[in-house]
Write a structure and sequence with these properties.
0% helix; Jelly Rolls; mainly beta
Length: 138
Amino acid sequence: MAPYADIAVTESARGSDRNALVDGDPFTYWTSPAELTNPIILFSFKEPVAMDKVVLREFKEGGNRVGYFVVEGYVKNGWMKLGYGNAIEDEAVVLFSGIRLKHIRVKIVTSAGNPMISGIEIFCSEKGRALAEKYVFN
């Protein structure tokens, strides 16, 4: 059984549901309010889990908005950069050395307007499947 995770977001636009980040539907998306172009999305697992890949997707109908993003993991007493990208577009894959983490976050650093994210998946390549198949929300 996959580990469970809580998902927290900086702030959601009215009517935007963070469930769209993990529902697997390319036609749904989560977005921040129009004035918030640098939101943070945080996944917190109940216990540390092995992971080595994060896949991000933008909502195609909204266009390519994200300019720069960072994926970080919380280790000991601080956040460590696991990877970054200059755009998400249809799909951005961030690969990193396998590590056991309890918290992982995606920081949108620059965006042309509020980002519209249609999916985030966290993987452990050894297991060949998404780690967070089921989510429990705060």
